[in-house]
Design a protein that fits this description.
InterPro entries: AAA+_ATPase, AAA_lid_3, ATPase_AAA_core, ATPase_AAA_CS, FtsH, P-loop_NTPase, Peptidase_M41, Peptidase_M41-like. This is ATP-dependent zinc metalloprotease FtsH. Pfam families: AAA, AAA_lid_3, Peptidase_M41. One of its GO terms (biological process) is protein catabolic process. Homohexamer. By secondary structure, the protein is α/β, with parallel strands linked by helices. It has four domains: 57 residues; 176 residues, P-loop containing nucleotide triphosphate hydrolases (Rossmann fold, 3-Layer(aba) Sandwich); 71 residues, Helicase, Ruva Protein, domain 3 (Orthogonal Bundle), CATH 1.10.8.60; 172 residues, Peptidase M41 (Methane Monooxygenase Hydroxylase, Chain G, domain 1), CATH 1.20.58. It is built from 21 helices and eight strands. Strands 2-3-4-1-5 form a five-stranded parallel sheet, sandwiched between helices. Helix 7 links the parallel strand 2 and strand 3. Helix 15 packs antiparallel against helix 16. The longest helix is centred in the first third of the chain and has 25 residues. About 4% of the residues have low confidence. Bound molecules: adenosine-5'-triphosphate and zinc ion (ZN).
Length: 518
């Protein structure tokens, strides 16, 4: 507002001073009586207004644009009472159990207040993306008939000092007005990451404001703030202190039972053919997040519609899983014959080592290009595993190296196709050294901040592990070269090979030699 008034005054004085100058030097009529002193006076005022206007422009709280954008962002905060209950959240039983207490606090807050108990203010959900953190927060709001305010941490990150803090303030004001409320702040690490000497002032102010708000509320109104992050380790200690986000709940990827439940929730309203066995799909989707499973159910329905089917059958689900794993099938790919051969051997290399070392169950190998991949192996572990031995990790690395080793053994040439394999293999080796104490550096864990001081030693160790695995993989593959050739030839001809067909090829060769000594 202030800026607008200044702008109008500035415009008037600019017009007036231009008019007076023109009047003096070009002698328009009728204001010949103005003196140079008058002109100087008006010009000085104009200049003063101009300087004031420019200064105002640099002050963020008063910039119309900033206020405007804030308004828009506030409008994005969904002020509603979500129609989501715990029945919509599959799996995550322990978390739901813990949240029941919070729900009771909100639903019967007077009972607790009478006893002098304070209601928990902040809950932190952490874990990988797509695991249902937002869904859980909405369900808490749904179960307590609370207003739900969604905000993403990145919305508060602004260039101008004070804008983020102001936004936090207005978010809490709204929540208080409509209490009971659940405020959900996704990606809270965007504002709540550890403060250090290089921190920027704006982020610190925003975080401080959040802390102040959290310390101040709940005397009379019932508000629970739920934060979500993929990285708990990045958060500032101040945020995790008692009275703030002091309840931490890990929301992880679902196990086989939970995957089954999630698939059931998302196929509830879909017509399924008798061929669809949800528990089988759950077994084949190890490592998938809830969001990916929801996506699979939806994709399967879309594929069934495209094929003019009345019901969704197992083929639609298989195609949907494949699409989520490997991306869209590339129609009419222009892959050269030599490239195709390379890809066939590369994928056969992964499959051969995988089967020999019994790492995961191979469901399908394909050299039909999808997404960025020219070929791929779809596999799933026998069971959900939480512990891995050193040997198992080394075997995983060997399977990843299997593609490149096959290229080298057959073509005496290596390709760029192993890029992702090498990245994953290196990551496993690095974890073995820095997290699991499984290298010659000893039974130690190397914290992230100390990695840079030990980088040479770590790189040496990584190289040692990868080189050894590579050598073992080469030996294993040389010893079973015939199986490799058979699998690759089958792939070249048919482009796709199923788990059963792979078993048949293996069964033809009586004694695969499994001399991996790592
Ligand atoms: N446990 C679950 N039960 C049912 N559906 C789920 C579950 N987990 C995820 N989903 C589905 O996945 C979608 C995305 O999940 P959500 O947005 O809650 O994940 P998130 O953990 O908040 O992800 P991000 O960290 O990326 O924000 C949900 O809308 C829901 O359809
Ligand atoms: Zn590969």
């Amino acid at each position: 507002m202030k800026k607008k008034i200044v702008f109008v005054l500035l415009t008037i004085s600019l017009i007036l001073s231009s008019f007076l100058i023109c009047n003096k030097y070009f002698y328009f009529i009728p204001f010949k009586s103005f003196t140079s002193g008058d002109i100087f006076f008006v010009c000085t005022i104009t200049l003063g207004l101009l300087i004031y206007y420019i200064k105002l422009d640099r002050n963020p709280q008063l910039v119309p644009a900033a206020i405007n954008s804030e308004k828009n962002k506030d409008d994005n905060l969904k002020n509603n009472k979500p129609d989501v209950s715990f029945d919509d959240v599959a799996g995550l039983e322990e978390i739901k159990e813990e949240l029941h207490e919070i729900i009771d606090f909100i639903n019967n807050s007077q009972k607790y207040k009478k006893m002098g108990a304070t209601i928990p203010k902040g809950i932190l959900f952490y874990g990988p993306p797509g695991t249902g953190k937002t869904l859980l927060a909405k369900a808490v709001a749904g179960e307590t008939n609370s207003s739900f305010y969604y905000a993403s941490g990145s919305e508060f990150v602004e260039k101008y000092v004070g804008v983020g803090a102001k936004r936090i303030r207005s978010l809490f004001e709204k929540a208080k007005k409509n209490a009971p409320s659940i405020i959900f702040i996704d990606e809270i690490d965007a504002i709540g990451s550890k403060r250090n000497a290089e921190s920027n002032n704006e982020k610190d102010q925003t975080l401080n404001q959040l802390l102040v708000e959290m310390d101040g509320f709940n005397k009379n109104s019932t508000i629970v703030v739920i934060g979500a992050t993929n990285r708990l380790d990045l958060l500032d200690e101040a945020l995790l202190r008692p009275g703030r986000f002091d309840r931490h709940m890990f929301v992880g990827n679902p196990n086989v039972k939970a995957r089954e439940d999630i698939l059931r929730v998302h196929t509830k309203n879909k017509p399924l053919d008798a061929s669809v066995k949800i528990e089988e799909i759950a077994k084949k989707t190890h490592g998938f997040s809830g969001a990916q499973l929801a996506n699979i159910a939806n994709e399967a329905a879309i594929i069934a519609v495209r094929n003019n089917k009345e019901k969704i059958d197992i083929n639609d689900f298989d195609a949907a899983v494949e699409r989520v794993v490997a991306g869209l099938e590339v129609k009419n790919p222009t892959v050269l014959l030599k490239e195709k051969k390379m890809v066939a051997y590369h994928e056969a290399g992964h499959a051969l080592i995988g089967k020999l070392l019994k790492v995961d169950m191979i469901q399908k190998i394909s050299i039909v290009p999808r997404g960025h991949a020219l070929g791929y192996v779809i596999k799933f572990p026998d069971e959900d595993r939480y512990l891995h031995t050193k040997e198992e990790l080394l075997h995983k690395i060997m399977v990843l190296l299997g593609g490149r080793v096959a290229e080298e053994i057959i073509f005496n040439e290596i390709t760029t196709g192993a890029k992702d394999d090498l990245k994953k293999a290196t990551e496993i080796a690095e974890q073995m050294i820095c997290d699991f104490g499984m290298s010659s550096l000893g039974n130690i864990s190397i914290k992230e901040q100390y990695v840079k001081y030990n980088i040479d030693k770590i790189e040496n160790e990584i190289k040692k592990i990868i080189d050894e695995c590579y050598k073992e993989t080469s030996n294993l593959m040389e010893n079973n070269k015939e199986i490799l050739v058979d699998v690759a030839s089958f792939l070249l001809e048919k482009e796709i090979i199923t788990g059963e067909e792979l078993d048949e090829i293996f069964n033809k060769h009586n004694n695969p030699i499994k001399t991996a000594t790592v």
